């Protein structure tokens, strides 16, 4: 396993950034800022992180709506994702991650009545194939973020997408927190995690390290939180992750600053040590 997250250093130099990850004890990283118009910088990033033994786990897909009902907006976002996947391939990243989007014209993530329909599933398949057939990545995979209200919203729907897309460069980014959407899943998150690894483990390229809390309200309110402050079964999560071949990275995200990331890192590595594992 590898652990990674942001580093808080005032530099954009690839070598200094790579060393900062090593100094934090990270063996995985988010891709530093780079565009497809900077070929030399892409090469510098790859060389610098290789020299430190730090894997670039993911390049963000610019987090936009790939299934927007407006065809012009949809096409523009697909072009952006294609560009980011090409960057991932050039810098030697494991993958480019994006979420599918939504039929809601005013959002890129909001729930919509059509998001969990066969029509939406088929559209996502079409879009993912279009991206992969356009870029034809040689090293990087294209990965979809698991989401609460659009496919993939479960291990089964992700497995179905893998089969339907039928492209070797379409693989899995695992974020179990995003699919814990009910009290049933919350209180049985150990089984949710185990199901994900059972059905998707062969294709998992990277994962996110977050946590989940359910508030004592009459209607269900579930929110992500810092690792160690919620109820995600990290013993199961790390045990299953460690069983995968290779050093699959777990990337921390969505925290407010270095102090929060240090606390999260301490919790995750502490659980790993308790069960005889390490990053």
Word description of this protein:
This protein is of the alpha/beta class. It has a single domain, classed as TIM Barrel (Alpha-Beta Barrel). It has helices spanning 14-23, 39-52, 71-91, 118-135, 155-165, 183-187, 189-200, 234-243, 258-274; strands at residues 2-4, 28-30, 55-60, 95-98, 141-144, 170-174, 204-209, 211-214, 222-225, 249-252. Strands 1-10-7-6-5-4-3-2 form an 8-stranded parallel β-sheet, with helices on one face. The termini are close together. The model has no long low-confidence stretch (mean pLDDT 97).
Which features characterize this protein?
279 residues, alpha/beta, TIM Barrel, two-stranded antiparallel ribbon, 42% helix, 15% strand, globular
**Could you list the spans in which at least 5 consecutive residues all have pLDDT below 50?**
none
Would you give the CATH topology?
TIM Barrel
Name given to the CATH architecture? Alpha-Beta Barrel
CATH homologous superfamily descriptor: Divalent-metal-dependent TIM barrel enzymes
C-alpha geometry: globular
Give me the number of helical elements.
Answer: 9
Question: How far do the termini sit from each other?
Answer: 5 Å
Q: What profile does the largest beta sheet have?
A: 8 strands, parallel
Strand content: 15-25%
Q: What is the succession of H and E elements?
A: EHEHEHEHEHEHHEEEHEH
């Amino acid at each position: 396993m590898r652990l990674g997250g942001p580093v808080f250093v005032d530099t954009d130099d690839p070598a200094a950034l790579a060393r900062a990850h090593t100094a934090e004890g990270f063996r995985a990283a988010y891709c530093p800022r780079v565009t497809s118009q900077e070929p030399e910088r892409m090469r510098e990033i790859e060389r610098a992180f290789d020299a430190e033994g730090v894997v670039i786990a993911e390049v963000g897909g610019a987090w936009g709506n790939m299934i927007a009902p407006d065809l012009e907006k949809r096409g523009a976002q697909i072009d952006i994702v294609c560009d980011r996947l090409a960057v991932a391939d050039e810098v030697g990243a494991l993958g480019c991650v994006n979420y599918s989007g939504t039929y809601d014209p005013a959002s890129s993530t909001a729930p919509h009545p059509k998001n969990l329909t066969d029509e939406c599933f088929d559209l996502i398949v079409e879009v993912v194939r279009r991206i992969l057939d356009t870029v034809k990545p040689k090293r990087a995979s294209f990965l979809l973020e698991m989401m609460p209200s659009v496919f993939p919203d479960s291990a089964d729907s992700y497995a179905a997408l893998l089969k339907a897309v039928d492209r070797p460069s379409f693989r899995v980014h695992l974020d179990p927190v995003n699919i814990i959407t009910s009290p049933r899943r919350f209180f049985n998150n150990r089984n949710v995690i185990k199901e994900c690894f059972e059905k998707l483990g062969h294709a998992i390229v990277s994962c996110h390290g977050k946590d989940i809390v359910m508030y004592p309200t009459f209607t269900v309110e579930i929110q992500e939180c810092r690792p160690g402050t919620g109820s995600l079964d990290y013993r199961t999560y790390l045990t299953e992750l460690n069983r995968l071949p290779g050093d699959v990275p777990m990337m921390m995200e969505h925290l407010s600053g270095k102090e929060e990331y240090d606390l999260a890192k301490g919790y995750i590595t502490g659980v790993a040590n308790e069960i005889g594992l390490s990053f």
